[in-house]
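Write out this protein's structure.
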Amino acid sequence: MNDKKAILVIGAGDATGGAIAKRFAREGYIACVTRRTADKLEPLVQEIKAAGGDAHGFGSDARKEEEMVALVDNIEKNIAPIEVAVFNIGANVRFGITETTARVYFKVWEMACFGGFLMGREVAKRMLERGRGTIIFTGATASLRGREGYAAFSGAKHGLRALAQSMARELWPKGIHVAHPVIDGAIDTEFIRTNFPERYALLEQGGVVSPDSIGEAYWQIHQQPRNAWTHEMELRPWMETW
């Protein structure tokens, strides 16, 4: 296992998370990908293997402390050291403030913020022992500003951003690169294709973010030399209003 390295992607969906896993797998990293339902990961795992890479899928709930502890322990003991960890759970929901129940608000926070804390804490324990590693938290427009109808989502993403900043200031001096890329724009996903066809129509003009481009940006973050690390970067289409 001495020459093997793993990337852990929490929230490896069909778009962004999967693209990140595939990009690192092409470089020889063992892709360890999670969703709450392991069966949904099988196409991604098989695609990576068919391309000559190695991958493992795990059914795991990022909100459950015992599951996150066991997941990281299993990968470290039985697969490879986690060199890169990516938290990519979205939890993007829209509710007016008077329609936002306590259950909705808490669940969104658990998914988009608390889960990030659990992952970050557990992988940091292992990376600190080695004095190296990269931890990336996927941010969104809601990480920077709260819009109408997004009180729960914005609160959670603001919290995740604060977590990333605190971890970066604590862990950078110890050799661990913590980054928070902000994806400010529609991503090429089934959700956008189905629910925002007028936005998706801009795809051919470069008006929709490609998951592969996000994967490339994450790879470049991981490759940065220590004398020029990035903590926060923004990724958006050239025609995006900001």
